[in-house]
Amino acid sequence: MLRIVYANLGYSRDIDGSIGHHVRRAHHHVFTTRRVQLRSLGLVRQRLAELQPDLSCFAEIDKGSLTNGFFDQVGALAEAHHTTVRIDNKYSADRRFRRLSVSRGKSNAFLASRPLTYVARYLSAGKKRLVYDINISGVRILMAHLSLRYHVRCLQMAELARWVGESDAPTVVIGDFNLFRGAGELRPLLADGRLVHANAHSGPTFRLGPYRAALDICLLSRDLRDHCRVAILDQPYSDHQMIQLDIAGVEERGAPLETPILVTADAQAA
């Protein structure tokens, strides 16, 4: 079995989405102490120890920014059995943020305990553009965090759909898609019938006071649909829930680790 988990960590600000947390902990958006971050990250690490995933993917994790005291959060999650630990700025590979920029350090990341190959790719539109394109044990995973702006999300999903079409491998597309207008926004990715919406009936994954929405999405190619189990797990330290995906019948196999390739938007255009 191959186990994948995905979670938006909310930069480990220890805000669960409730009105009470947003009011009492509003200052965490301006600055989050290391103690608060370690408390949240400790709960994530505990969950990973319980689940023992082969691949853990994270959105809204901080590589070290002005608002978190320049603390690299992925180091608090990585353990000896993780053979690959990767964290990249989610905005662009080729931008150099000044030390005092609020965008500096805002990242996506993944931890893996099996051999894999991967590419960090950047969508052509929007500000949040990083997509991890991972191949682990013969399964391709595209992990994304899409724009808050509807028209930009439309462009990003159309491009993601083209990327899915690059390979016939069993495929998972997972991440925070910010589907504030509902699952109909997934039409570009579902149009050709190759992918299915695996957590369409699993309930909301995001909370803001009384508001609930399914913003975090797991799509599967049809050749995986009958071999997978999806679960939504509570996260008391974030306003997003965690997605757990178990794929049966996948053995530990794959090519040896290769030197990571970082693809910038300019390189893709060329």
TrEMBL record:
Domain Endonuclease/exonuclease/phosphatase span(s) in chain numbering: 43-240
GO terms of molecular function: catalytic activity
Entries under InterPro entries matching the protein: Endo/exonu/phosph_ase_sf, Endo/exonuclease/phosphatase
Gene3D superfamilies documented for this protein: Endonuclease/exonuclease/phosphatase
Protein name: Endonuclease/exonuclease/phosphatase domain-containing protein
Native species: Aureimonas flava
